[in-house]
Amino acid sequence: MNKLIEIKELSYRYENVNVLERINLDILDNDFLAIIGPNGGGKSTLLKLILNLLKVKNGTVIKNIKNEEIGYVPQNTNLNTDFPITALEVVLMGHKITKKKLFGYCKEDIACAMDSLKKVEMQDYANSKIGDLSGGQRQRVFIARALCTTPKVMLLDEPTASIDVKGQKEIYELLKELNKKICIVVVSHDISVLLNYAKNVAHINKTLVYHHLKVDDSIEICDEHLCEVELLSALGKTEICCNHTHGVH
Ligand SMILES: Nc1ncnc2c1ncn2[C@@H]1O[C@H](COP(=O)(O)OP(=O)(O)OP(=O)(O)O)[C@@H](O)[C@H]1O
How far from each other are the two terminal CA atoms of the chain, in whole angstroms? Predict the structure, then answer.
């Protein structure tokens, strides 16, 4: 297993607030990593540090891949759904333009974007307005946009927020398929579905606790309302400490 990204002793503070403390984490080439933790625990900050959206000041983030090999699907793609843009045009926005053209895109760019849409089974919606798609379909389009640069790792920040459980499962089935070739890292609160797909879990609440989920550890989680502590408890991971009112048995 190759280390795509090596995070060593990474700490971060905004003004006077320590948000991350001495984080150590290796992101491996075939991983499906779930990053979980409470609100304000520092998950998005960690992604931003990996993506160079924030400057690393303490510790190191070693990337053994090029920056463009990191695909990113941001949280809440604050899209004005009335904006008259098609699914294909959204995907083309993530594309590295091959030939400079003043207007429009060349055939190769469009073929490549169509290929990305195909990978997420959205090719039939290429000319649909993004605002006319369901939340799950829209998320697939944003995943297609991130696929344009043929990433080796894909970071997804809350990809299933405000999508129903059926839609969440469909997104994770897609990610499972992509995980045959690409390392997947998902930040999410919707862990009841996510933990059925993840191979490893990083729980972040300023510090990081890492869990390897062995294959036979995988549990069929039927109740989507189970809370985080109960789920980790079910996995036999009782050392997690957070401000939950539920006890860990
Ligand atoms: N630009 C900023 N300036 C100051 N503080 C910030 C900034 N961005 C985030 N924070 C604070 O840093 C802490 C960690 O935020 P972060 O967004 O990384 O957490 P998170 O785990 O992703 O939270 P959530 O699950 O709610 O998305 C929070 O207390 C937040 O208020």
Answer: 34
Token pair listed for 122: 């959205």
CA-proximal residue: ligand 1, atom 17 (nearest): 44
Please calculate the CA angle 164-175-185 and round it to the nearest 5 degrees: 100
Give Cα 144 to chain centroid, integer Å.
Answer: 13
Query: How much distance in Å is there from the Cα of 46 to the middle of ligand 1?
Result: 10
Dist. CA 111–CA 64, nearest whole Å:
29
Give 216's contacts (C-beta < 8 A, 6+ positions apart).
none
Give yes or no: residues 162 and 191 share one domain.
yes
Going by CA atoms, what residue is nearest to atom 31 of ligand 1?
40
Centre of ligand 1 from the C-alpha of residue 1, in Å: 32
76 lines ligand 1 (CB under 6 A): no
Q: Is 145 in the pocket of ligand 1 (CB under 6 A)?
A: no
Instruction: Give 44-98 pLDDT, tens digit per residue.
Output: 999 999 999 999 999 999 999 999 899 999 886 556 667 789 999 999 987 765 5
Residue 247 forms part of a structural domain: yes
Q: Which domain holds residue 20?
A: 1-65+152-249
Strand partners, 26: 6
Query: Each residue of 155-177: pLDDT tens digit?
Result: 999 998 878 888 889 999 999 99
